[in-house]
Design a protein that fits this description.
Elements: H1 19-25, H2 27-49, H3 55-64, H4 77-89, H5 95-119, H6 121-129, H7 146-149, H8 151-165, H9 170-186, H10 190-203, H11 205-208, H12 215-236, H13 240-255, H14 260-268, H15 270-279, H16 294-315, H17 332-340, H18 346-376, H19 388-402, E1 409-412, H20 414-422, E2 429-430, H21 444-450, E3 452-457, H22 466-469, E4 474-479, E5 488-495
Parallel strand pairs: 1-2, 1-3
Antiparallel strand pairs: 3-5, 4-5
Helix pairs in contact: 2-5, 2-6, 2-18, 3-4, 3-20, 5-6, 5-8, 6-17, 8-9, 8-10, 9-12, 10-16, 15-18, 16-17, 19-20
Length: 515
């Protein structure tokens, strides 16, 4: 087990009076600086550049204001957190980016705590320093969604299970049950890690012996009590998330190459392998290896790599979303340090620190530069390029010119309708895909009482909306969004309250998800 250089003694090759030596003697300080850099850079970069939130974030905000337990896609903890961030700040511009980075920084801390218990503080800090080089902790993390909401839960479950299985007191088992149950509210795929954890608990003799005490079973009872509302709601909505998963699986299988998912995961880990090579940990060392308990190695490989490898193998036979792996690489650095940590000296640590901060600053800066040039100079209409606030303002103006009451429902092109409703003062509900199964907060009576604003892009009414729009007046408005590209056209049609004949399809619509 590694021990940190005691305060007052100089680390080899370093000046004991320097700030560097101080940071080395106090790993929590360096960890705090790392988290601070992650939060500041990855909050400011997208908040200053993006006029609209990413697509999943807009959806999360719109669903979060409904405060439902479960939608046809996922449990709604991310939506609740997004809505809470808006209620606390009044903004849709930056809180979601801060929220995303808080979850990632929390993951950093939890990974450090697990690695410290197993390998000591020096190797634990080094393991966390690897994490900013992994793609999933950077570029895509500006989109706070279910994949990122579950990330700290995966890290927490791994730490709590290890502590509980290695003889921790009752509190570890109770916390494990609570965190495991709440983790399912972030995304059902947290259950995959729980399955791996259960198998380890049964296979490891020392952990299995804890089953003779009442505390694991009380933890299980807490887990079941927390998860029960999700199970009840899943049954109530006729297991729609499973249908969504099957439809999405079919779409991915039809539109992605067989090795696509594995290729994306390897690309996402490319920076990690580069930093590993730069660090010097792969060099041969004449120093004898510090022994690492075999049980630690088994646990790290099983819990840290097992789920990711299983999904990669499964992707050869079924459709798998490229972002699914986001929470599955939390422990990659810990695995590396468990095998090569005996080679970690001051020079290697210095390289890891430099690489970690360079990754955070350089990649966040590159994100800002490429997003800005993509929208403004290249005219590439990404989701974040849409002029969100002007569209919401125009939507309300169109509605109030025709109807005296509040704007209560938006629909049409779902992605654009959500964007139109996002910043609207009345906080309208989204009628997802004009399908009441996907938007159970919309009823025929509510449509009759309050009407709806239809929104779509372009002048031509899309075929799927013609039965709704009919002969209603349509207003088409150009919106500037780029320094080079032409304005984008957005059309609005008001379906006033009191309209009785509404072509609402409750069960006949089919969804082909692409996200």
């Amino acid at each position: 087990m590694d021990r940190w250089v005691p305060a007052g003694l100089p680390a080899a090759g370093s000046d004991s009076s320097s700030a560097w030596s101080s940071l080395l003697r106090h790993p929590w300080r360096l960890l705090a600086l790392l988290c601070l850099a992650q939060i500041v850079c990855w909050t400011l970069a997208p908040a200053l550049i993006n006029p609209a939130p990413p697509g999943d974030v807009v959806e999360g905000f719109m669903w979060g204001r409904e405060w439902v337990l479960l939608t046809y896609k996922h449990p709604q903890l991310p939506g609740w957190l997004l809505e809470t961030s808006h209620l606390l700040t009044g903004s849709f511009r930056w809180p979601q980016y801060l929220l995303s980075q808080l979850t990632i920084s929390t993951t950093f801390v939890l990974v450090y705590l697990l690695a410290r218990d197993m390998l000591g503080p020096r190797r634990a800090l080094a393991a966390v320093l690897f994490m900013p080089s992994i793609y999933f902790f950077g570029w895509p993390a500006v989109q706070f969604n279910h994949d990122y909401a579950q990330m700290p839960f995966w890290a927490a479950i791994c730490w709590l299970l290890w502590r509980a299985g290695r003889g921790g007191g009752p509190g570890w088992w109770l916390a494990l049950g609570l965190v495991s149950g709440v983790g399912l509210y972030a995304k059902f795929s947290t259950g995959l890690l729980l399955a791996f954890g259960a198998l380890w608990l049964l296979a490891d003799a020392r952990a299995r012996s804890r089953l003779a005490t009442p505390w694991p079973w009380l933890g299980l009872a807490i887990f079941l009590a927390v998860a029960a509302p999700l199970a009840i709601e899943l049954y109530r909505i006729d297991f729609l998330p499973l249908t969504y998963f099957a439809d999405r699986d079919q779409w991915v299988s039809a539109h992605r190459a067989r090795l696509y998912y594995i290729g994306v995961q390897m690309a996402g880990l490319a920076g990690f392998f580069v930093v590993l090579a730069i660090s010097g940990l792969l060099r041969r060392s004449p120093a004898p290896e510090a022994p690492v308990e075999r049980g630690i190695l088994v646990y790290l490989v099983w819990m840290g790599l097992g789920p990711a490898i299983l999904i990669m193998v499964a992707s050869l036979f079924t459709g798998t979303g490229e972002a699914w792996g986001a929470p599955m690489y939390n422990l990659v650095g810990v695995v590396v340090l468990a095998f090569f940590g005996h080679r970690l000296g001051v020079a290697e640590m210095r390289k890891l620190v430099v690489c970690a901060f360079v990754c955070i600053v350089a990649v966040s800066s590159a994100y800002a530069a490429l997003r800005w040039t993509g929208c403004n100079l290249k005219g590439r209409m990404d989701a974040v390029c849409w002029p969100a606030r002007p569209i919401s303002q125009e939507a309300e103006a169109v509605w109030r010119a025709a109807v005296p009451g509040r704007l209560d429902i938006v629909g049409g092109d779902t992605n654009l309708a959500m964007l139109a409703g996002l910043n609207a003062y009345d906080k309208p509900s989204i009628f997802t895909d004009l399908n009441m199964r996907f938007a159970p907060w919309i009823t025929r009576q509510r449509l009759y009482d309050h009407g709806m604003l239809m929104i779509w892009s372009g002048r031509e009414v899309p075929p799927q909306l013609r039965a709704w729009v009919g002969d209603l007046p349509v207003k088409t408005v150009p919106f500037n969004w780029s320094l080079k590209a032409a304005p984008v056209l957005v059309s609005f049609a008001v379906i006033p309250p009191g309209t009785r004949h509404l072509p609402v399809a409750l069960d006949s619509q089919t969804r082909h998800p692409r996200d």
